[in-house]
Amino acid sequence: MRKRFEAQLLIGQLPIEKTPIPKKTRDSLAALVTALREIYIQPEWNTQVFEILEKKILSKHNKTGRPGMNLWQIFVLAQVRFCLNISYDRLHMMANYDKLIRQLMGVETDFGFEKIEFEYQNILDNISLLNDEMVRELNDVIVSFGHSVFKKKEEEALCLKTDSFVVESNVHFPTDYNLLWDCARKSLDTVVYFAEKYSEISGWRKVKNWYGELKSMMRILGKANASGGKNKDKRVKKAAQQYLKKANLLVKKIEESQYSFPQVDAIDVAHHIALIRYIELLKKHIDLVARRILQGEQIPHEEKMFSIFETYTEWLTKGKQHPNVELGKNVAITSDQYHLIIDYKIMENQTDNEIVTELKEKITSKYTVFSWSFDKGFWSKLNKVELQEKVEKVILPKKGKRNQIEEEEETDKLYRKLRHKHSAVESNINELEHRGLDRCRDRGYEHFKRYVGLAVCTYNLRRIGKFLMDEYASQEAAKKAA
């Protein structure tokens, strides 16, 4: 049965509450350790964290069986990964060999005593138990904990700032012909799986030639498309015709043999389903390449795909000079005057001004808000009216020319002061990007959502920990001076 944490210490085991806080360092890990230890020590906060983890993780598992990693260890390792922006390989190494992290996890022992170690897959599988809904609830608890640390008065209203940025998905730059190659490659990978597992399958002795010829033709087409010179159109069309001819032959060959592939176990069935999907995508991209290059058609945006793996990926232009195009998802964050991110939203094919009403309903139901600032991208007349119903001071600059009343409002001293403070949210975004939220390295949309949420949680914990470290340093300095 999985536990919250190990209440009964083994002989030689070092207690979590006595985890040392590094004082002579500016490393971000020290701040994270400080915040996590404080949460563990205070029952008010650790109870809420464990209740969320138990409700989501333990509800799906039997109460008997192997103990597994306890809930505290999962929580700590998930935060360490994003604080240092590291891979699972390095996280595995730190979980087994970093004394500070191991003591915070509750597994470190004195010299000479048996050492508890974790397997790579054990860490990966346990952190993957966290989901987007759970992480959002955890962030609410962390924000409440942060407000208890930062706020001088409990009823103090918040001054909010909202902005959006792109979190890139882990994809290569898409063109219809290299996505066609991706589909062909994955179809052949599936065929190879069956051919290697079942020796009676015939007809795929030259599968390596299929790989080589298709990839070579894709590169020839790409080179012809990128180069200039005379008769470029003819060269491009010729390369595309050869490439499409080979791709159509592959589709025909796989369709003739796919139903002869055995389906002995669940893995075989999963590979059959994957093969059907890749063949459908291969046909789609054969059609797109033919229409664009051979027929000269302009493909509508809604028909395009930007990855066959991360299918949620959007083509985003934020008006920046570099990069002028980003592939991923827009994420809107809302931070307060203490630089805590109280809310984040992954936008589903939405623009900035389309999410304001939803944000208002969600945030004002939980917090008292004095001021709320946005940039011009969030402007609409309706958004401003709705915000003013709940927020005393709304900073929402108008796009285009202002009338006399709007001019007077936007040149007001307090309005200008709060608008100038809005740029602090850019600093919050910059820190998130430097801690791993520039590009999601996890696969799948559910893992993308969890990745964003955990990065926000870690950011908030590090902010709280840095403040606590400064408080501890001030207290020690006061003691020495006394």
Characterization of the model:
The chain is α/β, with parallel strands linked by helices and 482 residues long. It folds into 3 domains: 16-130, no CATH class; 152-170 and 312-466, Nucleotidyltransferase, domain 5, CATH 3.30.420; 176-303, Four Helix Bundle (Hemerythrin (Met), subunit A). Helices cover 56% and strands 8% of the residues. The chain has 17 helices and 6 strands. The chain has helices spanning 28-41, 43-57, 71-84, 88-97, 99-105, 120-127, 132-150, 176-197, 207-226, 232-257, 266-294, 356-364, 381-390, 404-410, 413-421, 424-437, 445-481, and strands at 158-168, 314-316, 326-335, 341-346, 369-373, 393-395. Strands 1, 2, 3, 4, 5 and 6 form a 6-stranded mixed β-sheet that branches. Strand 3 and strand 4 form a beta hairpin. Helix 1 crosses helix 17, helix 8 (176-197) runs antiparallel to helix 9 and helix 8 (176-197) packs antiparallel against helix 11 (266-294). The model has no long low-confidence stretch (mean pLDDT 90).
